[in-house]
Structures are given as structure tokens and as C-alpha cells.
Amino acid sequence: MDLRNTWDKWPDANGRFGEFGGRYVAETLMPLILDLEKEYRAAKLDPAFKAQIDDMWAHYVGRPSPLYFAERLTEHFGGAKIYFKRDELNHTGAHKINNCLGQVLLAMRMGKTRIIAETGAGQHGVATATICARFGLKCVVFMGETDVERQKPNVFRMRLLGAEIVPVSSGTGTLKDAMNEALRDWVTNVDDTFYCIGTAAGPHPYPEMVRDFQSIIGIEARQQILEREGRLPDAVMACIGGGSNAIGLFHPFIDDEGVRLIGVEAAGHGIETGEHAAALNGGKPGILHGNRTYLLQTDDGQIVDAHSISAGLDYPGIGPEHAFLRDTGRAEYLSCTDDEALAAFQLCTQLEGIIPALEPAHAIARLGDVLDTMDKDGLLIMNLCGRGDKDVFSVAKALGFEI
Amino acid sequence: MPTSRITARFDKVKAEKRAALVAYLMAGDPDLEASFASMQALRDNGADIIEIGAPFTDPMADGPSIQRAGLRALANHTKLIDVIGLVARFRETDQDTPVILMGYANPVHSLGYASFAEAAHAAGIDGTILVDLPPEEDAELRAEYARHDLSVIRLATPTTHEARMAKVADGASGFVYFVAVNGVTGAGSADPESIAGNVEMVRRVSGLPVCVGFGVKNGAQAAEMAKIADGVVVGSAFVEHAQSAHESGDYSKAPRGMGALAGELSAAIAAVVKA
Lengths: 403, 275
Ligand SMILES: Cc1ncc(COP(=O)(O)O)c(C=O)c1O
Fold this sequence. Notes:
The complex is a heterodimer.
Chain A: E1 16-17, E2 20-24, H1 30-45, H2 47-61, E3 67-69, H3 71-77, E4 81-85, H4 96-109, E5 114-119, H5 123-135, E6 138-144, H6 145-150, H7 152-160, E7 164-168, H8 175-188, E8 193-195, H9 206-214, H10 216-229, E9 235-239, H11 244-250, E10 260-268, H12 279-282, E11 284-288, E12 290-295, H13 320-327, E13 331-337, H14 338-352, H15 358-372, E14 379-383, H16 392-399
Chain B: H1 3-15, E1 20-26, H2 32-44, E2 49-53, H3 64-75, H4 80-91, E3 99-103, H5 105-111, H6 113-123, E4 127-130, H7 139-147, E5 151-152, E6 154-156, H8 162-169, E7 176-179, H9 192-206, E8 210-213, H10 219-228, E9 231-234, H11 236-248, H12 253-270
Parallel strand pairs in B: 1-2, 1-9, 2-3, 3-4, 4-5, 6-7, 7-8, 8-9
């Protein structure tokens, strides 16, 4: 959290990354997000807050997560060396808990007693429910009906952890609808409630705050690769839903000009079909959920429902810092279809003995193409940001198995 | 100057020693033809100002009634340009009733602030309320509005404390819409006594008329609100008549139901004599 680089000037005082970001919320919420920003600034400078997070990371979450040389995948592709940053080994099985921990500790500093969250794959919901159980806070998770259906194991886990699940039926019943409903709850319960957003999007200061909490991924990876290889990687790579695991990996490398930053969006059935979740590759700038960013939308400015086999990537927008990184050319954004992700899911499982979540399977699927553009003695770090236990039912279904 | 339509209307209402009735309906629900007839029925039955809703797929600040109204309008392929066209048609025979477009930022952003301002002005729209465009984010829009005499109507809420109100008032014109409850449209109703102080503060800081809405459904509630406000905004209760029109398939129910409700509300409001 204390890594400084020249990109720390973003977001600016108006919460903007260039022309992206901002605070596009209803007036009811404006005083709340201004207050949140003030509290976050204070917490960021408080050594006790940092010490509390570090302690929980070490003893509860299980950080640092290993940097693992994926030897057989490297052999398979026959190119540059592939390292996995193993954030799937975190408690609760994904990177999401890095951020939840920070936000919930901040909520407690602010005297809030009720935590609300939206979730797609259920990973952010599970992580939030977990931290709330640990600290004895009330937790309400909004989840689209479609996702409740396709992520049953996580729904049950959240219930076990004592969270209340609110299925959301509006829209297509996926992540964006869950986020609308969470915002509606927040405008209704302004006094006791803290909205714990699960990705690096939403109104300022969320994109900055989530990035800061997730940056532990890149901070560790940078140190680990220097120890292992004695040099920086040539590329770092991550899947993109809203962009939190990716920005967490990218941010500590932004000043390292020789390091390519590569994000992989979900192309669903293919970008040309219109059924996808690739906001950067298939969207245009607009305003939704508190920020100006790339969005899937019609010519009339209506939001188009996203599609991805992966519930965690099934969102029509993207965090504003990625919009900026793309427009400035600092980062590259590729995409991967459902079918490619399914194949990569199996490849990684068979060659490395690691069942990845469907989200990072999207990044795995593009490894071959990226390696083709790199020297054989190059180094690449990919964030294996989640494990696939939650996905075995939907993968079985997609592959035609009954379990 | 179109802005003066709003000012002229408040002057008239004040001279009549009463509060204004501000009526909201969703354009294109159950269809544009019914919306047109409904606007006229509202006006004919005592609505002083009309707020015409522009549908959006993700209405974060709306409760179930207005969410459904928006989805019906979108199912009818109602576009922002159609909403502007509806107002232009209303203006052909009504030069006096202020019409405010209410919605979310993205459709307007998508059309482009400059193109929108020009088209809105040409159609006879007097101003807009864009729920997710707070003062911090509307400078660009305001610059375009200034060229076309359109009002930026701002929202104030129970969370808007006095220090913040100065920011909300800066650049606001027409009137201020005070949202009486923390919550979404159509949710619980506010106790007028508990918000009287906020309304007074908003009026003092902004120097503008204050219209109060959220949760007002009938004449009795409207009369209570009229005691503390310069205008009373009613939305979900009107929209429910469009819903029954849609459900029954008899679209004439929309203007009839809305007209009857406007009659009840305006009579109740007029019965409260203001100093
Ligand atoms: C394992 C995993 N990876 C990635 C994501 C996508 O989110 P983000 O882009 O914010 O990292 C999710 C979201 O649920 C997830 O569960």
C-alpha cells in the first residue's frame, strides 16, 4: 500500500483519471462519498490502520501469496517463462478478500455497523461475508438471480457465514443489476451502512481505494520476481471484470517502462456477436454506477447487458483507471471467448494441477498469443486471481457432464 | 427566454397564494401517444409544471414503479429524441406550462451535451433534472445550457447539510427539488414537520422556490407538503395509472387516471392558503 510512483497523481482532486472516473451519484450519496474520501485519506496515513491490515493479511488471508513458476505450461507453449501469482490461495479463494478487508476495517473506523455488497461470481460476496463474520458485522449481499442460480456453492457459503442474500430480478439478473440494487439500498440506509464495492469502479474514491488495497498483489510480485530472477518481468497479465485484480497487479509496475501491462476482457460468444463483456474492446465512454468509463451501450445511451460464461466478468463497464491506461497506450487489452476460456481452464488443470477460476482462465487462454510476441528468454507474470471450485458445476454443464 | 417560463409560473402560483403541483410521468409509457394525452390531461387538471421522464436501463435512484415504467417505455423503443419530440408536440399548443426533462446522465451524454441542449431548447424544454449528475460533474453541461437558456435543476436531500447546500445552489436555476426521504422514488413518505427546517434552509441558501417530492400519493399528503413547500412533486402515483393502462390494454386510462389524480391533488394544494 505504500508504494509510491508517478501515477499516484491519478486520480486528481476531482476523482478523475484523465477524462474518466468522477463522482456521478445522486445527491443523497454525495455527502457520503465526500465523507468516505476524507476518512480514507486519514486511514491511509495512519500506521495503526496499515498495521491492522498487514497483520490480517499475514495471519488470516495468508499473504504473501506465492509466485509460482508454471513449468509445464511454459514447456507447453515453448516460449518465455510463465509465473503465476497465486492469489487463488488466499483465504476464500480469490483476490477479492484483499479489498474487502481494507474496506471493512475502514467501515469500522467510521462507526458503520451494516455492510452491503454486490456480487457476480459470489467471490466478493463470500469475501465480504467472511470479513463481516470475523468482525461481527451485519452483511447484506445483492446478487442477480441468474448468478444465484449459476454460483450455488457460493450462495450457500455466504448463508453459512451469516450473510443475508438478496436475489435481484431486474435487468438480466447479473452483476450490474446487483450493483443498482446495492446503490438503492445505500440511498435508503445512509446512517449505518457502508457500501463495500467489489471492483476498482464506482464513484471516487472507490477506484483509488480498491486499487490501493489490491496493489499488494503487484507489490509482492515485483519483489518476488526480483528475488527469483534478479530482474523485472517483461509483461504482467490479468483478466478484467471491473479490473480490480488487474489494476492491483499493474499499478506497482506502471513506472517500469519495460514491463508490458496486459488485460484480458471477456468476449463471451465473440465481440462481433454483441454478446460479450468487453467494455474496452467493444464499448464507448459513458456514465454508469458513479463513474465515466467505457461501457457497453446502444446508440441511444442505454446500457447493454453483458454476457460471459464467467459470472465475475459479466459486467458492461470497466474501472476508470483502465479506461485511462488504455487511452494513454500504457496498457494493452485483449479479449477471450467463453470457449477459449473453457479450453484454458482444462489445460491449466491438466498441466499444472491447479483448477483456475473461469475468470483467470480468460488470461490463461491468451498466454500463447502474448508469448508469441515475446523473446524466448522473457518473463511473464499472470495473476491466477481465483480458484475454480465455484465453477465446477457450470463447467461440467458447459462440457455436457452431469454431476 | 424559456427559463422565464418557470419563473413566470412560480410568480403566478405565488400571486394565487398557493403551492404549485409538479407532476411526473414517464415518456413512452404505455406509449408516446398516451403520454401526449396525459401531459394535456395533467395540465388541464391543475398541474403547474410537468416533469417528463426519459427512460434509462439502470435507474439507480428509482423504486419499482418508476423502474417498471422505464422498462415499459424502453420496450416501446422510446429514445431520448422521442422524449424531446413529445415535448415539441406539446409546445405546439402550450407556450406556458414549464416542462422539465428528468432522467439519468448517460443518454444525454451519449447524444452529446451540445446537441442535447440545442434540441431541448428548440423543443421548448425548460430545464433538466439529471439524477446522477451532481454539481461536481455538471460544469460542461451547464456551459451548454447557458447558451440555450435551459435550467439546471438541482436536487437537495436530507443528507445535504447547509455547507454543502451552497455548492448545490451554485449554478442552479428554476427551482430546487427537495427529495423528502433518503431512499428511492415511491418509497416511504416523509413527515413534513421533520423536513420543514431543511426546506427553509434550501430556500434561504438557494434563493429559489423549493419543490418537495418523494412519497406523496394523495390529496391529504399533498396538502400537508404544500404548507412547507413552494411546490409539491408527485411521481409514482401518476405512473401507476400508466401501469394500469398498460395492463388493461386500454391506454385511454392513462390520461383519464392521471387527470383525475391531478384534479384531486391540485384542489387539495389550492386549499392551503400561502402567505
Ligand atoms: C476470481 C475472480 N477473478 C476476477 C474477477 C473479476 O473482477 P476484477 O476484474 O475486479 O478483478 C472476479 C469477480 O468476481 C473473480 O471472482
